[in-house]
Amino acid sequence: MLATEQLVEEHNVIERLLGVLEATATKLDRGGDLPPEVLERELDIVRNFADRCHHGKEEGRLFPAMEQHGIPKQGGPIGVMLAEHDKGREYVRQMGEAAAGYASGDKRAGRSFAAAARGYAQLLSQHIYKENNILYPMANKVLSQDEQQRLMQQFEQIETEEIGEGKHHEYLHEVERLEKQVGTA
Ligand SMILES: [Fe+2]
Ligand SMILES: [Fe+2]
Q1: Distance between CA 177 and CA 166 in Å, rounded?
Q2: From ligand 1's centre to the CA of 134, what distance in Å?
Q3: Is the dihedral of CA 114, 116, 120, 122 positive or negative?
Q4: Rounded to the nearest whole angstrom, what is the distance from the C-alpha of residue 151 to the centroid of ligand 2?
Q5: Predicted TM-score (pTM) of this structure
Q6: What domains does the chain contain, in order, with CATH numbers?
Q7: d(CA 31, CA 102)
């Protein structure tokens, strides 16, 4: 398997998570009763699986490997991807603040969470589309088999360091549990 194929598989998990976030937003906007722990569990996957682990692999390893082949960081597709990761982090910060308010009984915070979660889902879904269809194919063109192999090893190391061994797979199950509990968009 190519390193970029592993990232596409992670995108599939993240897209399911985005469906859960949109279903959560719909429920919260309708004033539906969702236990605060559901928002916390969603945030845990967003922060650790999507951002620290997946975006960590791209920012720390894939993009630098592409830069070594002359694909510029500034002013090109890599720069756009990095800016979108940062934009995503701002939505995550807003979601975190709203989830804390919601847990302390502030009903309006549910709507703030919904707005930030929707913004995040829209941003990430077009981001994933661009990576799958433009950026990763570009990487596959310039990276050798050896480099893809080395990236795979480095990805494994990132998983262990950032979220702990075996946890990566556990997140998929957690997304499945949330789909059952909250539904999908
Ligand atoms: Fe990305
Ligand atoms: Fe990605």
Answers
A1: 17
A2: 12
A3: positive
A4: 15
A5: 0.96
A6: 3-182 (1.20.120.520)
A7: 12
| Dist. CA 120 → ligand 1 center (Å) | 13
d(CA 36, CA 85): 26
pLDDT at 74 over 90: no
How far, in Å, is the centroid of ligand 2 from the Cα of 10? 8
* pLDDT of res. 162: 87
CB atoms within 10 A of CB 32: 11
Q: Looking at per-residue confidence, does 163 or 44 come out higher?
A: 44
CA 158 to ligand 2 center in whole angstroms: 15
Q: Which pairs with CB-CB distance under 8 Å and at least 24 residues apart come from 56-61?
A: 56/158, 56/162, 57/7, 57/154, 57/155, 57/158, 58/7, 58/85, 58/131, 59/85, 60/154, 60/158, 61/151, 61/154, 61/155, 61/158
Q: How many angstroms separate the alpha carbon of residue 12 from the centre of ligand 2?
A: 10
Which SS3 state, helix, strand or coil, does residue 52 take? helix
Which residue in the block uniquely carries the two structure tokens 């990095």? 82
For 27-39, write each residue's pLDDT tens digit.
999 988 899 999 9
How much distance in Å is there from the Cα of 127 to the middle of ligand 1? 6
Cβ contact 129:18 at 8 Å: no
pLDDT tens digits along 35-70 = 999 999 999 999 999 999 999 999 999 999 999 999
